[in-house]
Write a structure and sequence with these properties.
By secondary structure, the protein is mainly alpha-helical. The protein has helices at 33-66, 87-93, 98-131, 139-146, 148-151, 154-164, 171-179, 194-219, 224-232, 237-248, 250-265, 269-275, 286-295, 300-333. The longest helix is centred in the N-terminal third of the chain and has 34 residues, at 33-66.
């Protein structure tokens, strides 16, 4: 019995999969690739818009104002103010002129104040964080108490200190003069040369808890095995701090010192609330000096020029600091 086999018809090749010989295959785009690529930029648009409106546009307007002779006579239409060019910058940078001499004195006062405040904040914050690493009864309570100055609103805290520094009925003179007898007469803390020390005390009081918080967080990443190995080698507490703690905290301290420097050098709220619109000469920081020059004398062109110079100085110091710290990290890694 014979079996007949029916020949099969040739299988048709789909048109989409056939291509002429010698032609290159086109790129295949993954589904959703464009959407995934554009999504981060779309999410960043609100932040970028706020950055432009809140920071970039005021900076550009301030730079333009610094080249104009903008006074109270041109407040309604400051665009019509006469063009002065670099006249505002030469006036505020001339140490022989009254404006230049006052700005130089304020700048030196701010530098001294910043170095003292940042140094004390870092020292107190680091010491408190290091000595609170060991477990003991009441450690959690002390950590919470140390963060109270950082949690308080700035205005409420500084106003409280202003009452405490009052000459006749302030708490500071009551303790130093009435209780301890350390002064011959109650000193004025918000006037004269003592105003510098009053401002420094308030700045350190409200700034060192931030250093304490940052250093305490950085210490959590230091392995306990390093301290155990140091103790086995006979290293005491101070030797362990110098050889283990401080080198391990170098990256944290580099960022901490930069942030404290920028915050302190630009601080306006503390002296303004503590002394009012006109700070004493001994506590005349650059930020208050610019505000006084702009809104007391109505010379907004000179005030804008001082602000631009302050911005350039801070950018220069920040750039040099980051360059030096990056070189130090590369040298340490090598």
């Amino acid at each position: 019995m014979k079996t007949t086999t029916t020949p099969h018809a040739p299988t048709a090749v789909p048109a989409a999969r056939t291509r002429a010989p010698g032609t290159a295959r086109g790129p295949r785009r993954r589904p959703g690739l464009l959407r995934r690529t554009a999504l981060p930029y779309v999410l960043l648009l609100p932040a970028l818009a706020l950055e432009v409106l809140v920071h970039l546009l005021p900076i550009v307007m301030g730079v333009l104002m610094s080249f104009k002779e903008l006074t109270q006579f041109h407040l309604r239409d400051w665009g019509a103010a006469p063009w002065r060019g670099l006249g505002n910058f030469t006036a505020v940078l001339d140490p022989g002129a009254p404006a230049g001499e006052a700005l130089l004195r304020s700048f030196l006062t701010t530098c001294l104040f910043t170095v003292a405040s940042v140094g004390l904040c870092w020292l107190l914050g680091t010491a408190a964080a290091v000595f609170l690493q060991e477990a003991f009864r009441g450690r959690a309570l002390l950590r919470a108490l140390f963060l109270v100055p950082y949690a308080l609103p700035v205005y409420a805290a500084v106003i409280t200190w202003a009452f405490m520094f009052q000459r006749d009925d302030g708490l500071v003179n009551h303790v130093l003069h009435d209780q301890l007898g350390l002064t011959g007469s109650p000193p004025f803390w918000l006037l004269g040369d003592n105003s510098f020390w009053a401002l420094l005390v308030v700045s350190v009081w409200k700034g060192w808890p931030f250093a304490f918080l940052v250093v305490m967080a950085g210490l959590q990443n230091v392995p306990r095995e390093l301290y155990e190995a140091g103790a086995l080698d006979g290293a005491g507490t101070w030797r362990q701090i110098r050889a283990i703690t401080l080198p391990s905290l170098r990256p944290v301290n580099q960022v901490l010192v930069l942030v404290l420097f920028l915050w302190t050098f630009n601080d306006f709220n503390t002296p303004f609330v503590l002394f009012g619109k006109a700070a004493p000469e001994a506590a005349d920081l650059v930020s208050v000096h610019i505000h006084q020059s702009s809104f007391a004398t109505w010379n907004f062109g000179a005030g804008a020029a001082m602000s631009v110079l302050l911005l350039c100085f801070l950018l220069l110091v920040t750039g040099v600091y980051l360059f030096l710290t990056s070189r130090g990290r590369k040298a340490a890694d090598a």
